[in-house]
Amino acid sequence: MDYPFRKQDIYAGGILIVLALFVIVESWRMPREFLGFPAYAGPGLVTGLLGLGLLGMAVTLVVRAGRRPGARVSLSRADLRGYLSNPQTRRFGLVLLLCVAYLLSLGRGIPYYITTGAYLLITMAVFRAASWWVIALVSGLATIGLAVVFNKIFLVPLP
Questions:
Q1: pLDDT-based confidence at 1, cuts 50/70/90?
Q2: Are 8 and 23 in contact (CB under 8 A)?
């Protein structure tokens, strides 16, 4: 049985490992005692756990891909060019770029609802999730819902 995506899984897993390590490090740097809450209620806890989960899944992806038979894994220019020209890789890169841009824009003086609404709107529009009015409606409702849940129910102030 041939496994054509062995190399792509290893490359994508490597990228996700780097991203997960970045998330874990940045969540560790977040304030642990926020507004008098105990350390286990700090904003970095859930983010760190999500980073650990992503790291675990990325390592699993790399290990499973490494165990499968298939094409030899190498980092030649031709392989890298082929990987980067693959439409699935471009979509993955675009999602990664949108997520990083969103994360870096949070807490920079732009209100949360504008940043989140724009991120959802752009992401769904780029990937043509639905018609424009459905995308706008879902983006607006999701942004309002997230703001209400975090601010009113979990008492977590959003940037």
A1: very low
A2: no
